[in-house]
Amino acid sequence: NANKKFHNERLVVDVNGVKIGGGEFQIIAGPCSVESREQVCYVAECVKKSGAGFLRGGAFKPRTSPYAFQGLQAEGINLLQEAKKMTGLPIVSEIMNITHLPLFDPVDVVQVGARNMQNFELLKELGRTNKVILLKRGLANTIDELLMSAEYIMAGGNENVILCERGIRTFETRTRNTLDLSIIPVLKKLTHLPVVIDPSHALGYSYMVKPMALAATAAGADGLMIEVHNDPPHALCDGAQSLTPDAFDDVAKAVFQIRPFA
Ligand code: PEP
Ligand code: MN
């Protein structure tokens, strides 16, 4: 049950010793899409050095256009696994179809993307697994709808759910989405589940990532998800919002500085 009334303590999700929630803070960083062995291993080494606790990387990509890069799929998961072996970082990747679940065996945290937040059959199936699930808020979903989707997973017996705000659709066009930071105090009041903020997808432009990552940290987020690419202008997906490893290092340093006071 996602309702805080039924839990005395905040949920600490423990992924092979890397903890998030209940006072434990983590940065999840990596490329939007896994593009090659060199790319994902290089980015993994960089973000680890900067203090990230998890490596992210998309293998199955929910692209708006069917003609856009769809991800390396099974090969992408293999390459993530190699980067995990190299760095020891647990890996986070998005699932879109439950038939792919066996491929996600090496994936430590299974992401449900914004577009699938209300794919209830997918949520029910994930509820029957023992995978840690990172559930993103849908593009046009309320906080209560997000919590009900978490409930779909938890009702099946899987209590390890991390919630993620990644921006919502509004009339504003200067940002890709509108980052709803007010979700942090609301979720802290309503649920014991960890709350992660993804400023990369919320803002859509790399120059906005640092101030909003800091704001989210100060507001009490349990973690951040930040896209990092070795060569953002040539990224196959989401280059405009991706940080270089150097820019990520700067953001991570700033975040870790304010974190003790958050
Ligand atoms: C992603 O994390 O790469 C992604 C597709 O995110 P979202 O579902 O938030 O758009
Ligand atoms: Mn992306």
Order of helices and strands: EEEHEHEEHEHEHEHHEH
Largest β-sheet summary: 8 strands, parallel, barrel
Average predicted confidence as pLDDT: 97
Enter the CATH topology name: TIM Barrel
Give the structural class. Answer: alpha/beta
The bound ligands are: phosphoenolpyruvate, manganese (II) ion
Domain module tally:
1
- Assigned CATH architecture: Alpha-Beta Barrel
Q: How many β-strand runs?
A: 10
Percent helix: 25-40%
Helix segment tally: 8
**In what order do the strands lie side by side in the largest sheet?**
3-4-5-6-7-8-9-10
Gross geometry: globular
User: Roughly what fraction of the amino acids lie in strands?
Assistant: 15-25%
Give the terminus-to-terminus CA distance. 27 Å
> Which spans of ≥5 residues are poorly predicted at pLDDT below 50?
none
Q: Provide the CATH superfamily.
A: Aldolase class I
What does this structure look like?
32% of the residues lie in helices and 15% in strands. It has 262 residues and is α/β, with parallel strands linked by helices. It has one domain: TIM Barrel (Alpha-Beta Barrel). It has an 8-stranded parallel β-barrel with strand order 3-4-5-6-7-8-9-10, surrounded by 5 helices. The protein has a two-stranded antiparallel ribbon with strand order 1-2. Strand 6, helix 3 (120-127) and strand 7 (132-136) form a beta-alpha-beta unit. Helix 1 (37-49) runs parallel beside helix 2 (74-87) and helix 7 (209-218) runs parallel beside helix 8 (245-258). The chain is globular, with a radius of gyration of 17 Å. It binds phosphoenolpyruvate and manganese (II) ion (MN). The site of manganese (II) ion has 5 residues, from loops. It comes from Anaerotignum neopropionicum. One of its GO terms (molecular function) is aldehyde-lyase activity. Residues 14-256 form the DAHP synthetase I/KDSA domain. This is Phospho-2-dehydro-3-deoxyheptonate aldolase.
